[in-house]
Amino acid sequence: MPFHWIVLLAAVAVEILATSALKIFVSAPLFLAFLPLVLIGLSFALLSLALRVIPMAVAYAVWEGLGIVGIALIGHVLFAEHLTPGRLMALAMIVGGIVLLERGVGHEEPGHQEQRRLA
Fold first, then answer.
1. Between helices 56-79 and 85-104, what is the axis angle to 10°?
2. Dihedral sign (CA 104, 14, 44, 26)
3. Of residues 46 and 118, more confidently modeled
4. Does residue 17 surpass a pLDDT of 60?
5. Residue 15 in contact with residue 33, Cβ under 8 Å?
6. How many Å apart are CA 110 and CA 87, to the nearest integer?
7. Among 60, 111, 65, 74, which Cα is nearest to 92's?
8. Comparing C-alpha atoms, which of 72, 108, 102 is closest to residue 90?
9. What's the pTM value of the predicted model, to 2 decimals?
10. In this structure, how many other beta carbons lie within 10 angstroms of the beta carbon of residue 111?
11. Residues contacting residue 81 through CB under 8 Å, at least 6 positions apart
């Protein structure tokens, strides 16, 4: 797996951890409330590294989409939040959208962009 994709997946993992920490530390002492902020900052930094190579639409969709799916799973496992059939279908559609977007970015036929510019 190329380096920038590993960095992007690390950004997703840190984002999931940061969002989970928001839920965990909601009633914790104030100094712990800064941990999610630091983690979110780290996630953005990793995302910015991935953006050097991965197209922005793909990188953001992967980062946010997989983050949503990960948070839904963490919410179900750690916080007893329900995953109804409708929610599972929505999560599957998010993953499907990410795959479709990744397959479609940067794969236009030659000359297609030039035709679009002339139109």
1. 160
2. positive
3. 46
4. yes
5. no
6. 39
7. 65
8. 72
9. 0.81
10. 8
11. 72, 75
- Structure tokens belonging to residue 28: 């914790």
DSSP codes of every residue in 31-97: GGGHHHHHHHHHHHHHHHHHTTTS-HHHHHHHHHHHHHHHHHHHHHHHH-----HHHHHHHHHHHHH
Burial (0-12, 13-18, 19+ Cβ within 10 Å), 9: middle
Tokens of 82: 């329900």
Query: Distance between CA 21 and CA 71 in Å, rounded?
Result: 11
Q: With 70 as the cut, is the pLDDT of residue 118 above it? A: no
CA 81, 85, 90, 92 torsion: positive or negative? positive
